[in-house]
Amino acid sequence: MSQLETKDRILDAAENLFSDKGFSATSLRSITTLAGANLAAVNYHFGSKDALIQAVFRRILTPLNNDRLQRLDALEARVQEPSVDEVLTAFLTPVATLWSESKRGPVLVRLFAKTFAEPSTNIRDLVFSEFEGIAARYIPALARAVPHLSRREVMTRLHFLIGSMTHTVTNWDMLAGAPGADELIEQMVTYGAAGFRAPAALTTSKGTP
Amino acid sequence: MSQLETKDRILDAAENLFSDKGFSATSLRSITTLAGANLAAVNYHFGSKDALIQAVFRRILTPLNNDRLQRLDALEARVQEPSVDEVLTAFLTPVATLWSESKRGPVLVRLFAKTFAEPSTNIRDLVFSEFEGIAARYIPALARAVPHLSRREVMTRLHFLIGSMTHTVTNWDMLAGAPGADELIEQMVTYGAAGFRAPAALTTSKGTP
DNA sequence: GTCTATACAGTGATAGAC
DNA sequence: GTCTATCACTGTATAGAC
Question: Which of A51, B34, B74, B161 is 20 to 30 A from B196 (CA-CA)?
Fold first, then answer.
């Protein structure tokens, strides 16, 4: 057993068990047993199972998003008008970096992928609130790189890109050959940048005149 | 209460409750109460909660995928060499059609979106097995439309597209303005088709020479 | 075959002693 | 901060009624 405090031991145990068996299938008893703590410690330190889940995610997302901001800062300091490819690379690379971490990586990315499309928990809200700072920086950067798109269409296409990212990470093993993280980032940037560069979609909604 | 048989009443109730509160947050008791059935009826008709979830999904996915196959058949009967845009439209439209159904639509699509990124259940496997027939028809059609890509890269980009689709549907309400289904399909086809048409990504994996 | 009533082990949560 | 005891509720299984 490590020298860490109870709170951190619980977070570590929860991270591993959630990633392994999912949220609902992981009982607080199995977490506290693995962490060498008492069952009630979870409710004392975090308040509820749901709050524990959120704490696990916050511990991952904060550094990830900081990395994203840092990369965009560095990019804009280096290049006057960054291309879509460069901005998307800055956006996607932190995920690949996490993924490439030898041991904790796969655990974290699997958890991160589960964030979206989760039904009733507050995870989605947490992720989107953590994401606000990212959007505030990346959407203007993207809008400058693809000035032919309205702000709204930039946001829509960013959603498309995020969907590609999360789905790919989630179903990594379904991709035949299972390419490395670097290679996949490359393919995703190629695909996404071309999508962003595509002309604005017509907004003719109704009839066929 | 309807005249339907118990089995169907349970499926209807489960579909609505799952879509509303998620899978783990929905108890079998709440399902059977809403369906006007006894608790044990679930295990009698389906075997387990997990099997019930799968049955709910199968009832949605089978007609959806049949619609996809039918549209591709019709397209290839009409056009000799369908474009990426046309193939992607055939692929995506059934989802939009489901979505546009006034009452059941939103329920189904929310459920369908939860299919991916689900942690430990067998849902993912079910969806992918149901998807095999689709892939067998659509991947060759796409490969013919974008002959500059290897078969593997076609599959990878199809994954990207599926991710965009599911994430967009899941987080529909996060998109400012919440465009209509038709408009969103149009934007997704524009984005995805451009992505498919992009040149093959370099597969230089390692160093920077 | 279909349905009911009931029992059981495991769950998240909480109050209160130490 | 930590622990024990206890709560209401969950999914599942089964014996037996119609």
Answer: B74
B1-47 domain in CATH 3.40.50.1370? Answer: no
For range A163-171, the mean pLDDT: 85
- Residue percentage of chain B with pLDDT more than 70: 87
* Cβ B5 to strand C below 7 Å: yes
Nearest chain A residue to B187 by CA distance is A201
A61-65, B29-33, B60-64, B180-184: which range is least confident on average? B180-184
At what angle are helices A123-145 and A49-78 packed, to 10 degrees? 10
Which residue's CA shows the smallest distance to C1' of D14?
B40
Q: Is B161 on the interface with A (CB under 8 A)?
A: yes
Q: Is domain B57-197 classified as CATH 1.10.357.10? A: yes
Per-residue pLDDT averaged across A13-36, rounded? 92
Which pLDDT score is estimated for A208? 38
User: What are the tens digits of pLDDT across the range A82-99?
Assistant: 999 999 999 999 988 887
Residue B170: pLDDT over 80: no
Residue B115, token pair as written in the block:
């299919």
Most A CBs within 10 Å, among B131, B169, B187, to test the A interface: B187
Does residue A172 surpass a pLDDT of 50? yes
> Where do the structural domains in chain A lie, given as residue ranges?
1-47, 57-197
Which residue among B159, B175, B180 places its CB closest to the CB of A167?
Answer: B159
Query: Distance, angstroms, CA A38 to C1' C18?
Result: 15
Q: Roughly how many angstroms between the first and final C-alpha of chain A, as a whole number?
A: 72
Distance C2 C1' – A138 CA (angstroms):
59
